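Researcher: Go.
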Amino acid sequence: MTKKVTLNDMTFVKMIEKSILKEKVKELADQINKEYEGEFLELIVVLKGAFIFASDLIRNLTVDHAIHFVQFSSYSGTKSTNEIKEKLAVNFDVEGKNILIVEDIIDTGNTLDFFIKKLKKKHPKSIHIAVLLFKPNAFKHDFPVKFKAFDIDDKFVIGYGLDLDEKARHLKHIYQLEEE
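Model: Structure:
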């Protein structure tokens, strides 16, 4: 079992085991199933980072749902560019619908804030967020995060869909940048 990974001359240490990830994703799915029982849910998966988390989450959902994808970019390497680019937009009518945004990680929240404001203009019934990793110390907004698996420190992480320059998404565990 690999405890460290080296990528781009940086060392990452294992932070969350795949077995713990699996348990937490199941717990989130159970909460979502309870919250939306008897209702239809529109899942909007934020690519690329959330695709592994979303696929595991979706396999545990029992509520009726549809799956959609959006894509934004705001990172270069380990740093945010503070510029949000929409690469793939919502392509369905959200008016009157229950929306669940599935995201891999929330740090500043700038991208989600941008996206939520855009969705609200289209008058959905509800908007909630399901996120794997939340960085409360980096978060700069006040939108609620209803379903979250883990609160983590404000450190760069890879694995389980999260990348560094498009690398390391395949790792089964989540790794955190090692402090020097």
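Model: The domain at 4-74+85-177 is CATH 3.40.50.2020 (Rossmann fold).
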